[in-house]
Amino acid sequence: MDIRQAQEQDLPGIAAIYDREVLHGIATFMTVPFSSDEWRAWLAAHSGSRHPALVAVEGGAVLGWASLSPWSPRQAYDRSAESSVYVAPDTQGGGVGGALMKRLIAGARAQGIAVIIARVVDQNGASVRFHERLGFGTVGVMRRIGEKFGRLLDVRVMDLHVDLGEEALEDGR
Fold first, then answer.
1. What residues have CB less than 8 Å from 151, skipping those under 6 apart?
2. In this structure, which CATH number among 3.30.360.10, 3.90.1170.40, 3.40.630.30, 3.40.718.10 belongs to the domain 2-170?
3. How do residues 62-118 score in pLDDT, each as one tens digit?
4. In this structure, is the dihedral angle defined by the CA atoms of residues 66, 70, 71 and 77, taken in order, positive or negative?
5. Among 12, 54, 122, 167, who pairs with 154 as Cys (CB 3.0-4.6 Å)?
6. pTM summary value
């Protein structure tokens, strides 16, 4: 498996993974798939080193992707970013998501990003545990904030303070 910056030829694979969640899952609150133009704009917004989009590929197939986005357009939040990570269903649990996130976290630290925020559907226990294993802690839970497929969904806001260093993260500080 190779992890690298996403490129235009990766967009069909990225979209296929994401669209499955848009149309059938609860990992995203989007309900309508992006158009090709919207995906190209997304890639352009994630082509830099501060807010990248990474892909895990093997044999030309996209196994998963992860990205960092600005948390807010307000300048005081520049030290923070929001993460996203999605893995193809047949490769979930095989280390693809963890490898992507570890590379994303290392890149964030190198770019001076201090805090990574993740918004995780609380009813998606596997994703909550995944983020906890990476060192994310819960900030709070927004109750009944979304509705998809007739279900009211909670969102757990989690954060990882990458500026504290590996030792502090392992100690839970």
1. 26, 123
2. 3.40.630.30
3. 999 999 999 999 999 999 999 999 999 999 889 999 999 999 999 999 999 999 999
4. positive
5. 122
6. 0.92
